[in-house]
Design brief:
mainly alpha, 2 helices, 58 residues
């Protein structure tokens, strides 16, 4: 599996986990905030690897 695809799968898993936690515990719960920060890190990492000056790198 390519690193790009693996990264996207990690993003989707974290997003799904965050949605579940928010539904159970609320948006301002400690765990929801922690998962949101983890998701932000994954998204930033993906963006840095795949985009430069608004142009997608392949």
């Amino acid at each position: 599996m390519s690193k790009s695809k693996e990264c996207l799968e990690q993003i989707e898993l974290k997003r799904s986990e965050l949605i579940t936690i928010v539904a159970r515990n609320g948006l301002s719960s400690h765990l929801a905030i922690e998962l949101s920060q983890q998701l932000d890190q994954l998204l930033n990492m993906y963006h840095k690897k795949h985009y430069k000056a608004g142009t997608e790198l392949s």
